[in-house]
Amino acid sequence: MERNDHLIRIGSYNIASFYKEGDLTRIEKIEELMSQQKIDMAGLQEVDRFNPRSGNRDLLKIFENAGRLVHTDFNKTVLMQNAYDYGTGIVSRFAICDTARGSYRAQKGEKRGWHRITVNFAGGKLSHYNTHLDYLDQNIRRQQILELLEIVDQDTSEYKIITGDFNTDVSHEEFLPFVKNYQITNGNDNHWLETYNHKPDPTMQVYSVDQIAFSKNFSLKECGMIERPELSDHNLLWAELEF
What is the pLDDT of residues 43-98, one digit of tens each? Predict the structure, then answer.
């Protein structure tokens, strides 16, 4: 596939570190899939560091060592037993200039937070935010969405991207707060991609739970998802943006 200098390809992928414990080649296959799809930046959710179930490895190092998405940032949301870490990650082809992270004020159950990298991009700055929201309570989740958008709105970077597993399993309308200041990939032109692939699930009303949102100075050229249920219970969501 030919690419021009004004395109960037973004991914969002819940890699489900608990999934198929003992398969120590699964994350390598995820990295290979993302490289094959020519992903330039991606937000990952459910990322392990030094967990026995993942071979006591830092999973982001697999991306770094593969040679494409070599710049990474990890955000620890849970310190589990035996002192191993669990959280979210961002992987990027672009060198990271700055990072930030925080926890949401609204919480229920598992700790939830966001993190951000900033890179030099198109003569300015691009900020990439990544998150994994509450799955237990729609009201808590809405508060987390509004808090995240408030933070992103205040960011002075020229370009902005938000990735995440938002666990928006009640209604597509849970994504409505995004469309005031941003564009969305999943649900663009009312086309919804069911990125959770373990269906049916009686606890879920919709399966379009993963999202890539972006500032309005991008235009969406193409998007899709890659369904590989042997790798994760989520599909890789991707978007090709023109700037």
Answer: 999 999 988 888 888 999 999 999 999 999 999 987 555 567 899 999 999 999 99
- What the block records as the tokens of 104 is 């949401």
Quote the CA–CA distance of 47 and 14 in Å, as a whole number: 8
Q: Which residues face 130 on adjacent strands?
A: 115, 163
State pTM to two decimals: 0.95
For residue 56, being part of any structural domain is answered with yes
Whether residue 78 contacts residue 87, with contact meaning beta carbons closer than 8 Å, is answered with yes
1: in domain: no
**CB 167 within 8 Å of CB 131:** no
Collect all residues with Cβ–Cβ distance below 8 Å to 160 and sequence separation of at least 6.
Answer: 126, 127, 128, 129, 152, 182, 214, 215
Is 2 part of any domain?
Answer: no
pLDDT for 51 equals: 85
Token pair of 221, please?
């050229």
Residue appearing with tokens 């409505």: 176
Is residue 47 in a domain? yes
Predicted confidence (pLDDT) per residue in 216-236, tens digit: 999 999 999 999 999 999 999
For residue 61, what are the domain limits? Answer: 7-242
Scanning the chain, the segments in alpha helix (DSSP H) are 26-36, 59-66, 138-154
CATH number for 93: 3.60.10.10
